[in-house]
Amino acid sequence: xxxxPLVDLKAAHEEVADEVRAGFERILADTAxxxxxxxxxxxxxxxxxxxxxxxxxxxxxxxAVELSLRAGGVGHGDEVVxxxxxxxxTVGAVxxxxxxxxxxxxxxxxxxxxxxxxxxxxxPATRAVVPVHLYxxxxxxxxxxxxxxxxxxxxxxxxxxQGATRDARTPGSGGxxxxxxxxxxxxxxxxxxxxxxxxxxxxxxxxxAIANHGGVAKYRHDVPGFNSRLDGLQAVVLRAKLAxxxxxxxxxxxxxxxxxxxLADLAATGRVLLPATAxxxxxxxxxxxxxxxxxxxxxxxxxxxxxxxxxxxHYPAPVHLTPAYRxxxxxxxxxxxxxxxxxxxxxxxxxxxxxxxxxxxVVDTLTxxxxx
Length: 372
Known about the structure:
Layout: H1 9-30, H2 37-49, E1 54-58, H3 61-71, E2 79-83, H4 88-96, E3 100-104, H5 115-121, E4 126-129, E5 153-157, E6 165-166, E7 176-180, E8 194-198, H6 201-210, H7 232-242, H8 245-262, H9 264-268, E9 272-273, E10 281-282, E11 288-292, H10 297-306, H11 336-344, E12 345-348, H12 356-370
Parallel strand pairs: 2-3, 2-4, 4-5, 5-7
Antiparallel strand pairs: 1-8, 6-10, 7-8, 9-11, 11-12
């Protein structure tokens, strides 16, 4: 049978192929390869979509986190609190500023940052907390606002939640957020790309300067910086896909609801734990993540893959149990919710074009993989 991918990038491309082709021809004719009108228009359009005043396009999502931190004054000797169950890029961005990552646990139902453990991790050297909006829904930023000391900034990692809201709030509104347009995201480019979102004009200007070798004018370098710019070709792709993002997110929500219904029997018997949506969240379902109980997760994923089902794991190890961050000094048991999730979670195929028949096949195959 035809494989069912975790993400169907081919189907996504087919929807925008003609627009992208025409846009690429414009870029080639104008030789506007770095920056240019397509980038400026995308920045305005995405700012409007995200209900923020400013969008600064950058080279990738990891740079977007680093630039947001640097613009907030984070540097050598500082500490930044991040969830233990995030993708490694979040922690890598912190490390690149020269700051030390300080880990906090996640909530057991949603896998979002536990606000209390984050607050408990704040110390005299803390300069930022990075709530990660994981799997398509937003962490509880409001629970942190007002509880943090005045010198601690909130920097949102919004790489997985384009179009999501929590209590009508969008990422970056009233603060600063970083997002990624990696190809598999809800809004995906044809390579690496990212953006910083904020209502603060001074922060936006500083991010733009740092990302352009420290200044916005040629051969003028006001602050230390590096090169992280969005190119015109990626802006063409993102503009075409942005026009379809709201409909795509609605299709994802419908597919997630179908999974909920199809998996109801497995959930009732406790063999599968369905994903939870936190109160106030409008979820955009970047990933549909379940937990399996009473079975070896890796074996289940292997059986699914062997039958052509593109299941994956996001993520198989929390940060403190990866060799790269062993130096933080943690051991197994320090972040129990993150560790339990890493052992049990798996992501099922989900994208706007997935069909009910494909989802039925995914669930049937999962049921067989779990055994009796």
